[in-house]
Here is the input.
Amino acid sequence: MFGLTSDRQISYEGTFLAGLHPQDKERADNAVKAALEPTGRGEFEVEYRTIGIDDGKERWIAAKGGAIFSGASAVRFIGTVIDITERKRTESALAASEAALRVEREALDTLNRTLEQRVAERTAALENEMAARNLAEEALRQSQKMEAVGQLTGGIAHDFNNMLTGIIGGINIAKRRIASGRLEDVDRFMDAAVDSANRAAALIARLLAFSRRQTLDSKPVEIAPQLEATRELLERTLPENIRVEIDVEAGTGAALADVNQLESALLNLAVNARDAMPDGGRLRVAARRCVVEACERSLDLKPGTYVLLAVSDTGIGMPADVVNKVFEPFFTTKPVGQGTGLGLGLSMIYRFVRQSGGQVRIDSRPGQGTTIELYLPAADGPSDDKGPMVPEAAPEGRGQSVLVVEDDDAVRLLICDVLGELSYLAFEAANAEAAIGILASEKKVDLMVSDVGLPGMNGRQLAEIARQYRPDLPILFVTGYAENAATKASFLGPNMAVIGKPFAVDDLAGKINEMMLANNPGR
Here is the structure.
């Protein structure tokens, strides 16, 4: 963006200020200095031109960022710079096109309308200019779309960097305390790091839902007990001046959904409702069974039976122009630099419900509150929900052999270490080729734990080969992202299961023990 060759040394005075357009240098320099002043807000946002130091080209740059302070001193200055040269050129071309169009129209009005040939020539010229204007507008829309992507990624980076600060800082402080023998506060810092890591995992889960790439474990969920169980979570999340009401119509039965994603969706809607009711109010979650007919095309649903969940608040509501945008990928109600905002949460809910085979509708008016309806496919059979699980200690093995196939060294080390502590015998393989060598050998293998996203041959393809050598081998997949594993039913074969990254050690141990017992009930 400053027209520098790769061997140039970078400095504020020698390259940044030296590369600025003379008319923009003072303004950009003052903006940086203002952001570094402790009396200011520490924010930096400016557009300026650069003159390439080595190539002489003029470019337009949009810069946003800010300073991080320790006391009264700025210790770091971070931000983003975007090359907006094409946008500026497009805006200039569009303005020039509009000006030329006005001149042509004025000239056309003065012409003798009886001269058909001249009118035809001018009309042809106008059509050409209109085509050029359409091209310029399309280029401007594309530029605006890329700026929207930059705004979204900037918000995600803001949230994720905060979480990484908690993780790295907590671990670093804990290591220092352990090294100095001061163990009394270690748990507090480790708990803070774990909490930040869990929030980071939740953000990634929302992003996967946003892109319709999270793995759904859809199964029948009894709505009445599920909403009653969720009531306590909602009451803990919402302030005391918001009353929570649960209303489940008799005969609602079960819906086919991922219970964790459903609970997350309800919590997201409750948080949005809380923000819409700063002075308190009522949050009502109602559920009933309904039949969608083929004639109800506005719902964009297959005809059939659905469970309708309606979440209503008595908040400030939203105008029509906002309602039309709340499910759009890049829409957010938060300013730049303050996180990902409401848009990602509602997009996550929309993607989850659509991926589950349902639909989402919203009704909101200023001053009249908001109602969001979730249509989920009704389950034909009874729910297999056995109620809340009581936490237990991680079950131990009895010396069974487990083949661990994982290309990430740290994750492979973690899994093998957990297996060793739980009295399993672990074999390691960094890729599918190494795993096939073990599977083809005489070694005893009671279970294979494999990442889905392996280099070369993926985990699902490896499972097919594994079953050729060992037809009854139970296989547990671990995955942080897998497009083909979007729904477990279509991805898994007999005696296979999947667990998502990041996972708790006890969850991994419990799943391994469950599969071991299912394959060898007497052991």
